[in-house]
Amino acid sequence: MENKGLVIVLTGDGKGKTTSALGMLLRMAGHDKKACVIQFMKSSDAGYGEFKMMDRLGIENHQVGAGCTWTVSKQATIDSIKEAWNLTKQKVLSDGYDCILLDELNIALSLPEIFEDKIIDASEVIHLIQQMRQQFPQRHLIITGRYAVPELIEEADLVSEIKDIKHPYTKGIKAQRGIEF
Amino acid sequence: MENKGLVIVLTGDGKGKTTSALGMLLRMAGHDKKACVIQFMKSSDAGYGEFKMMDRLGIENHQVGAGCTWTVSKQATIDSIKEAWNLTKQKVLSDGYDCILLDELNIALSLPEIFEDKIIDASEVIHLIQQMRQQFPQRHLIITGRYAVPELIEEADLVSEIKDIKHPYTKGIKAQRGIEF
User: Fewer beta carbons below 10 Å: N end or C end of chain A?
Assistant: First the structure.
């Protein structure tokens, strides 16, 4: 077997989690591998530079988020997470993918106001991963976002924590197009 | 001014430095911004998935490395670093780029056997950055690689340290196409 599917978790408070996952997708695409991206939290209205480029690269991508939790209602956030999670369960166990990226799932799992409502429980995520490992042992799964829960870190094959050593926000410099979004 | 150029350093022993930079380039391309990539250490012979995709995205990219330092001669490594550094000095101060990525420059700067020969001194890098900031204040510069030197961290606007929490190498699983290269 050429390939062993890896469960990869990119977490931490520093810049580079989603972009790192996108970079892996760029590599995947370079090897003609097929990926599917589900973006929790992020709305397709937002002008993220990656959306257009994933289309251009032929990478299937779904933005199922409601947007920033501080600008939309709690209910809209909850609904969008439910929708993204339902899509996740379907895609992770569907034929035809070499890699699936669940962008910002960690945030969806750990948002305190969401967590009370138990929209997604960590045990459901672990169960889905275990099903995927059985049915698609070569498939890679990448999960990004701060606050990865301990159960997920335990289950993963590769975990990188991206630490903020220095960030321009703290010097009052605003988010830059192409860098942050 | 819409944009303030940022000097971004992605360092640490974890997976995700180069891929994070590639993800930023994907975002840049999505905003029709022009990037130039110089890859130290990596040879274009190596089958990195990103090479083909950068071409397809219209991202100018140069692989000037000799390859892994444990498979090529010290002299080949030194020569390739000199060549990459000369190209870097030229591109960083050339018109027409929104972003320049110096992939694995940190390694080139810190490799002990190279360092003795002082191929590139940290002060030269800092000087080049300061010239760029003056001449192209909106230009972003991304520098990746383990072992970022303190002078560079001091000079940078944004530094993320990517820490290896768990890596499949330690479980004897080999590098995976699309993930590691």
Answer: N
Within 10 Å of residue A127's Cβ, how many Cβ atoms? 12
Number of domains present in the structure of chain B: 1
Both tokens of residue B9? 């350093």
CB atoms within 10 A of CB A155: 18
Residue A88 within any structural domain of the chain: yes
Measure A159 CA to nearest chain B CA, in Å: 5
- Among the partner-chain residues B2, B10, B173, the one whose CB lies closest to the CB of A16 is B10
ipTM > 0.90?
no
In a domain, A133, yes or no: yes
Structure tokens of B13? 């022993």
| pLDDT for B137 | 97
- Set of chain B residues whose Cβ sits within 8 Å of the Cβ of A167: 158-159
Average pLDDT over residues B67-79: 75
Domain of residue B111: give its range: 7-171
- Residue B31 placed within a domain: yes
Average pLDDT, rounded, for chain B: 88
Distance CA B144, CA B159 (A): 10
pLDDT tier for residue B68 given thresholds of 50, 70 and 90:
low
Cβ contact B166–A158 (<8 Å): yes
A9-27 burial code (b ≥16 CB/10 A, e <16): bbbbebbbbbbbbbbbbbb
Q: Mean pLDDT in chain A?
A: 88
Residue B117 has pLDDT above 80, yes or no: no
B126: its two tokens: 């800092």
Query: Mutual orientation of helices A49-57 and B17-30 as an angle, nearest 10°?
Result: 90
* Residue pair A68/A92 in contact by the 8 Å Cβ criterion: no
The CATH code of the domain that includes B60 is 3.40.50.300
Q: Is residue A24 part of a domain?
A: yes
What one-character-per-residue DSSP string does A114-144 give? HHTTTSS-HHHHHHHHHHHHHH-TT-EEEEE
What DSSP letter does each residue of B147-176 carry, written as one string? Answer: S--HHHHHH-SEEEEEEEEE-GGGGTPPP-
Residues of B in Cβ contact (< 8 Å) with A99: 178
Angle value at C-alpha B142, between A49 and A7, nearest 5 degrees: 65
Provide the percentage of residues in chain B whose pLDDT is more than 70.
92
